[in-house]
Amino acid sequence: MTAIRIETTDLAGVLVAAPVGRLELVSYASLRDGLLKLAVDEPLALVVRLDDRFEVPSRAMLAVFTTVWMKVSQWPGIPLALVTDVDDHLEELRTSGVSRFIPTTRTLPEALRAVEQPPERRFRRVVLPDSPAAPMMARAAVREACERWELQKISDDAVLVVSELVENAVRHARSSSTLRIELRPRGLSLAVRDDDPSPPVLEPPEPDVPGHRGVQLVDRISVAWGFAPSSGGGKIVWAVLGLREGE
Description:
This protein is an alpha/beta fold. 37% of the residues lie in helices and 27% in strands. Strands 1, 2, 3, 4, 5 and 6 form a 6-stranded mixed beta sheet that branches. A 5-stranded antiparallel beta sheet has the order 7-8-9-11-10, sandwiched between helices. Strand 10 (224-229) and strand 11 form a beta hairpin.
């Protein structure tokens, strides 16, 4: 058996995901992307439960959980924990070093306690039309959020980044989009969902397009940026800006 499927249970906003199948090279990406899609929906936390239906012929494959943890830590920044009562899995997670980064418990109640205090956050969600007016609306929403949350020092950078993210959605996805503005202790995140599953391309600015400076500007200004497939189809492109002293 090489396919991996993920069974999910929602426990008061905490999503418990149970991979079922054999983790090997051909199923590695499927498990990684499946867990990232679950995180994109921004549950309070994500707990991965490994029972005896989960097979790991090679300990090296467990790096999938570290990869997911690194990406989820950048965005959307939700807590992640592993839980298993299978002795072999516990030993493999320990010796592979995965449990050094991700809380690993033997019981589900212990895992829930490990993620029960997600980081504080403020957020605003804005639905944008498939229209040339969308970037202007996004810029206005970000300016307002930065003023309300007293982030004047990064306001201009945030406006530049969101403008590029939404410009790409309008120019390439040709769909309406959803902007999520979120403030967390680690920084301000801007995430734009559109209906096009194609990944953004780090390309040079287009000189003949006024105001369009490409994803290179996002890459230069942001602490981190990336994209993830959306569980409802399409993709989410996100960027995180670091806070300045006093913010």
